[in-house]
Amino acid sequence: MRGPVATTDRMIDHLDPPTLAAEPEAFDELFVVAGLHLGGRRFDAGEALAAMIRELGARAAPRLALVIAGELFDLPPGAGPEDFASVAATPACAPVFAALAEFARTPGRRLALVLGSDDRELATAPTRRWLSKTLAADAGRVELAFGGWGYAARVGERRVLVAHGGDEAEPGTAVDFEQLRARNLAEARGSSALASEPLAGLELRALVHARAARHPLLALLGPATPALAPVLAALDPEDTGPLLAALRALDLRRSASAARAHASGSRLLGAAASEPSDASLHERYLAPTLRDDPIVSNDDAAALLWSAKVAIASGRDPRARARAGMLGAWDRSAGASSPRQRRSHGQNQARPVDGPQALARALSRWVEAAGGFELDGDDPSLAALDRLVGPSVDVLIAGHGGRPRACLRARAPGRAYFNPGGWSRALRPRVEALRDPAARERLWRAATAGSLAALEDPDLATLADLGGLPGVCEGEDLRGLVVHAATLVGVHPDHALLYRARPGGELEPLPDTRLPRA
User: What is residue 298's three-state secondary structure?
Assistant: First the structure.
């Protein structure tokens, strides 16, 4: 079992939990970034990020750590070392990797990478080898914290834990570390079949990646969680079959996780969750957003009929689809229910909403599902981690979600929680603005235009939410509905706070984020 050690100039690469006896590495300063999304359509700050990394490397602190708390890359599921290498060599990303390698070679510096839900392929053996070669060089001071345990350190007398937080916040898309270990072991033993087995939990992410080419808005919405499902359905209401398949896989993993967490005996542990029907998935994940009234029946035919209504309301003919899925099965189910049966199922009372309203409602729910944009918002990662992390941790930091946070923990009074936010472009719709029909129409036109430029139209800036980002400047950090602010967490011996990195790499403290308060 391998874990962090006090001081070392070698690469540390562990998939096992740190040993309890190991003392966390000590630093004078520690900085955390997350959500870089290199290789994705969201990332456009290569030179600025490289400048910030060089700025950190040149600081006066004798011992300084830079931690990347997940989502270093944004590649489709199944990416291998050649894909990561190709991205790292692009003009947008090459300066970043050059700066990271330089930072890792600098005496007194430590670079740590925490595995994220959306870049879990980094933990496969071939990609780890590529990463080691790219970052560690001959005397690299790099730690790959890829075991799900996060990265522990000390800054002065303060104990710091940096986690990703996505696995705890959403078990349905969590990294399967047992599968990773089995796959890496198979690769070492030359068992090609198991070593090439697709990683679990990526169905929704794969769908988001596939549809982002047609709907660039999806690339700006952060991690692939169930909160994105209504957005996918609002943009493609006639093609919910693949979405329901992804939600079914996610729902089964949620059920399995809940069973493991609450099992009191081996019989419960071994029980298999029943597979949810299309109708139940519609009710749980989609119906509250895309329909005004719930379907009374759990019958699949009723859900099919309602889905056809959504397509019709959006100006599409559901019978025109040749592919299988919820609406592709419309012709097969159209005669299955009489008008009387449909009335008994509540079909006459269900009121599907139009495209602009459906998208506005879906985005509003997406904003609210992650606690809004305010610095003290109800962060799902905090809610999950706060139950698991003891009060001996003075500063808890999670990288999941992409929204800056600075607040105190509820279950550990006086202890701080931070989220560094992201370094890539992000959509920030203001929920109140989306209640206006005219605003919904403007958003719909931009979202369905097929380009990121449409979402960056200056006329959309009035619909943006700048909560939690004091001092953001329109035109510099805000373009239309898209925010480009680059934020990070800094931990110092007597306090921690959020910073914003300026284009030249200089760090600017964000007001009212210092904890404990001065």
Answer: coil
pLDDT of residue 295: 35
Reduced to 3 states, what is the DSSP secondary structure of residue 251? helix
Report d(CA 493, CA 191) in Å as an integer: 48
| Residue 372 pLDDT | 87
DSSP codes, 323-336: S-STTTTHHHHTTT
The pairing of beta strand 142-145 with beta strand 495-501: unpaired
Give pLDDT tens digits for 489-505: 999 999 999 999 988 89
The angle that helices 81-88 and 125-136 make with each other, rounded to 10 degrees, is 30
DSSP state, 96?
H
Tell me the CATH number for domain 12-174+375-429+464-509.
Answer: 3.60.21.10
DSSP string computed for 422-453: -SS-EE-B-TTGGGSHHHHHHHHHHHTSSSHH
Residue of 77, 41, 75 lying closest to 85 (CA atoms): 75
pLDDT of residue 292: 58
Query: For 52-65, how does the pLDDT look when each residue is reduced to its tens digit (9 = 90+)?
Result: 999 999 999 999 99
Q: Which two tokens stand for residue 31?
A: 């900085």
In single-letter form, the type of residue at position 376 comes to: D
Residues 6 or more apart whose CB falls under 8 angstroms from that of 453 comprise none
The answer to whether the CB of 230 falls within 8 A of the CB of 195 is no
| 3-state SS, one letter per residue, for 134-192 | HHHCCCCCEEEECCCCCEEEEECCEEEEEECCHHHHCHHHCCCHHHHHHHHHHHHHCCH
Q: Is cis: bond before 413, omega within 30 of 0? A: no
DSSP 3-state of 415:
coil
Closest-CA residue to 417 (of 407, 429, 403): 407
How far apart are alpha carbons 264 and 70 in whole angstroms? 33
Neighbours of 320 (CB within 10 A): 10
φ, ψ of residue 508 in degrees (nearest 5): -120, 115
Q: 216, 231 in Cβ contact below 8 A?
A: no
State the Cα–Cα distance between residues 50 and 84, nearest whole angstrom: 18
Q: Where are the domains of the chain?
A: 12-174+375-429+464-509, 203-361
For tokens 């990394």, name the residue: 53
CA distance linking residue 42 with residue 23, whole number of Å: 38
Report residues of the chain scoring pLDDT below 50.
1-10, 16, 19-21, 264-270, 293-303, 306-307, 309-311, 313-315, 320-350
Evaluate whether 284 touches 251 at the Cβ level (below 8 Å): yes
**145 neighbors 115 (Cβ within 8 angstroms):** yes
Q: Could you give the CA distance from residue 376 to residue 513 in angstroms, rounded to a whole number? A: 10
Strand partners, 163: 398
Q: What is the dihedral of CA 226, 128, 11, 43, to 10 degrees?
A: -50
